[in-house]
Amino acid sequence: MTEPGAVVVPPLRSPAPAPTPARLPRLDHVAYGGDYNPEQWPKDVWDLDHEAFDAARITTVTLGVFAWSLTQPAEDVYDFTVLDEIVQRAADAGRWICLATGTGALSPWIARAYPEVTRVDFQGRKHRYGQRHNACWSSPAFRRLAAGIAGKVAERYGDHPNVVAWHVGNEYGGDGGACYCDLCAAEFRAWLRERYGTLEELNEAWCTTFWSHRFTDWDEIEPPSALTEHWKDRRYTAFQGITLDYRRFSTDNAIRQFAEEKAAIRAHSDLPVTTNLMGFFEPLDYHRWAPHLDFASWDNYPPRSDEPWRTALTHDLVRGLKDGAPFWLMEQTPTVTASRDVNPVRRPGVMRLWSWQAVAHGADSVLFFQMRASRGACEMTHGAVLDHSGRLDTRAFREVAGLGAELEGLGDLVLGGRTPARCALLVDWDSWWAVEMADGPNRLIGYVPTALSWGRAFWDAGAQLDVVPVTADLSGYDVVAAPLLHMVKGDLPARLRGVAERGGTVLTGYLSGRVDEDDRRFLADVPGPLAGLAGVRVAETDAAEPAVGNPVAFDGGPVVDGRMVFEVLVPEGAEVMARYRADFYAEAPAVTRHRVRAADGGEGHVWYVGTQLDQPGVTHVVRRALARHGLLGPYAEIEGLELATRVTPSGAVVDFLLHHGPAEVTVPLHAAGEDVLTGRRYAVGDRVTLRPTDVVVLRRDEPTEVAVPG
Ligand code: GLA
Ligand code: ZN
Asked: Hey, whose CA ends up nearest to atom 12 of ligand 1?
């Protein structure tokens, strides 16, 4: 038995790289446009393209993302004839250019000359030439050639007045995120030497005495794949420590290759550099990546159309990469995707709604993939601003042009604006990986679905939320949610305690506080280093199939549903908030709350939720926390009506009302101001009606009442 607070979290093996401040492209409008690949169709169409872009108020094009086989047709031949012309046409039309290095897809000659550049996949299959996003990040040839073309592109266009940003590669890890070749094995071993110093330390960290794995030579270490430690798939490993380290290594390996292109650019240009990320993308830890980006950007292709919170929270995650600074929405489809088995079109108004949602959550750009549809190959049916006919009377084009006019009217109002969040949701790739690769108690628990369910409760209540890494400064937040905080690293327990001791509220729960940075259990009661703070211990942990629920009854509150995992809680200082109703642990505590003495004599609260509550259950807990801090939004009771706020560098407060709900609503407005889309003025309490997909962009009259933390 451990004394509360007695668990020591070991010092970090590799402290997170220091954050670097964001540097965004200098613009005087929200950047509007997207990927434009005219090298893929005849030149006689290019004039029509630009005429259409003028009509839609397109300000920005991303060029050259897949142009490498044109710009370097052979190892010692660079040919910028086509790219020169494309850049010049865009510049003549007055457009800003986000210029790509073009390294997201290999050219055939590279793979032929240097077979090492193609990957070995998780199954151990050595790939031959094909597709894209397919290069091995350890390959010296790929690294040299990629940095080479990046330098050439930057040298040629670095001083071009219309180029505003650099776009390195494309969707890193798009084909799975890791390579398992011999070059990668060697790089992995070098990475491990750096991390552990000695094999003894590594053996300790990986618990290798288990199943007779003690390594006596670095060369005995294999990348963890289907041929070695794994069965079934990437999540089923005999040694979590090895697999975790391989994911960390793969992320660092990708970053090194990115950084080499960035350095090659820097030799010629100081403009900001980014790469388009993919939101909650499991294979690569974007928090490790963030310090290397000048600004963050991502591609928004929501898997479903009826989960607006997912997109909102993903914007929040990407904004959190650069400490709340604005980011770029680098891609979204104007109409339809092609890559899914079934690809429904965006309903009228939805593209506009989602674009404003991006701006509302901190995007300083609205960019599409793509400006004109591909002529051939696998993306020819992917939606575009212009379809193959080039018609301007399509619904897609009309909607794009309509939004272009609105964004033009917005001018520079929100550029640089930040989100005044008093709430934070912690997301950690290490915990994500660790909890999903754990054998037991329940393989069916998903990290992102859980984070989304908790985040949704904030979104739904209209509370402004930051999604931040576990290393973030928490001192500006009143409510901090840390679901599935499986791995506890560094000084996080102390920073969470700090939130409670300032009178704030911490929310955590099942499967948290289980393992250290090496994925070794704490030799202590569960939840390990969080037990003292939460005032609770877990006596045992039950699991069940998704169909099996256990009613969870809140004292004086609702009866909700618990599922998947059921921790039987023993309060050690905490009060019981809810109890299980069924099974042998009926009446045992399921949810607790620990009142912690705050520095000012008041109290902070630490909730521990021992089971996967249904959405009403999560909402109940989150809303109680929000209510305590006065953070319930004005439209918390209106289904589907989102409120997101940005505070501009000049102190103007801009509220975005975004109606995702299925039915028309009429609400009394929470603040006085002007709808910048219509010019209409509102007083506080004026009734405003929003139909589904409607948007109000309210510039508040009184700019001073909202403070941005940090
Ligand atoms: C991704 C890529 C683009 C394109 C789109 C199509 O986001 O970055 O090159 O393939 O998907 O959905
Ligand atoms: Zn490799």
From this structure: 337
